[in-house]
């Protein structure tokens, strides 16, 4: 595979894109597996196309203003204080010495789209509560959950303890937060704790490893892209495109946010000097022609003495059946796309080809960026389709129903694929409002 790194910088104080402001004379830094496809530097026309891309994205609410960003920081600061307060109270209840209670710490780390810097207006924040060794997972779901209950600014509080990565979900002063938990094998959690160090995984149970994995993967993705600003703008465009075309859903067998981020990061490594407009076009070029199921790696998987389970088809027979592997860059390396089926991959590859044709037109001046974000007309595309219905009486029940139904739909797709008379099973990951009278009945 390909992996390379070169630096150039976007002028933060100017919304206009010019080649002179986007490049710096910095030494090349090589990463990973092979050399880049092209080291071509931006042309003035690339800057114009990139500025037009920004303008096309704005109406879709993909950018937050500074006031909204500051509000998120305030909410995260309040949540961090709550966590530290709870950990100290827990230390007192467990009879820790006063000197230990004063220094136990505890910290909130963010990950996902917020940490990558590509979250949209109204998007939730993914975060992990990292606690010292005297704090048990049961404490998080009991005493901390109770503490959250008594906060006036917190609404829609619910716990999902039996999830693959157990999580507490809530709305804090208007910001939705998904908070997972990890207990490290240390007596204190310092303010400068480095989650990128593999040693922090030592002696942890697998649920804590999974909870930390989100942060470790997000940080590693950012470390492995040549230019963060170009990466972020290209990723915003690709995520919006994927949602508009109905192929953004990990649970339904398409790709989730981290998988899209890794594919865009890979494109950045292959074209380290390209601006976002070119990166979007090259993204479609690369992955419409990718020889699946050859895996996508951002870096060479490293060795570790921690003996945690990693994606390796040479060792794990089940890994050999993954049809579109995209491997996370942080240990323990995992396939982020194990839900992808033959049908959903075929749908995505078709969309990559369509995206390539559209962006070729855009860069040739024959179309504008709005064409890329036109939604798929699903019901004109096919003659035969199935409508599934489900309802719930409360918001909490609705969320449980959504998760249950989506997971069952993925199983249904797998069953349909095995029918010799069915060529492809294409799921539209969108819900529709039902008939209120039927619901009441």
Describe what this molecule looks like in 3D.
- The chain has 441 residues and is an alpha+beta fold.
- It folds into three domains: 19-63 and 225-363, Poly(a)-polymerase, middle domain (Orthogonal Bundle), CATH 1.10.1410.10; 66-218, Beta Polymerase, domain 2 (2-Layer Sandwich); 378-440, no CATH class.
- 42% of the residues lie in helices and 8% in strands.
- It contains 14 helices and five strands.
- Strand 4 (167-172) and strand 5 form a beta hairpin.
- Helix 7 runs parallel beside helix 9.
- The longest helix is centred in the N-terminal third of the chain and has 28 residues, at 66-93.
- The model is unreliable at 1-27 and 392-398 (pLDDT under 50).
- Mg(2+) 2 binds at residues 124, 126, 178.
- Pfam families: PAP_central (PF04928), PAP_NTPase (PF20750), PAP_RNA-bind (PF04926).
Protein traits:
alpha+beta; 3 domains; 5-stranded mixed beta sheet; globular
* Average pLDDT rating: 87
Name the poorly predicted regions.
1-27, 392-398
CATH architecture of the largest domain: Orthogonal Bundle
* The level-1 CATH class of the largest domain: Mainly Alpha
List the helices and strands and how they pair.
Layout: H1 19-22, H2 44-57, H3 66-93, H4 98-101, E1 107-111, H5 112-116, E2 125-131, H6 137-149, E3 154-160, E4 167-172, E5 175-183, H7 206-223, H8 228-244, H9 257-270, H10 276-288, H11 342-363, H12 378-381, H13 395-417, H14 436-440
Parallel strand pairs: 2-5
Antiparallel strand pairs: 1-2, 3-4, 4-5
Helix pairs in contact: 3-6, 7-9, 8-9, 8-10, 9-10, 10-11
Binding site for ATP: 111-113, 120, 124-126, 178, 239, 248, 257-258
Keywords: ATP-binding, Magnesium, Metal-binding, mRNA processing, Nucleotide-binding, Nucleus, Transferase
Domain Poly(A) polymerase RNA-binding: 377-439
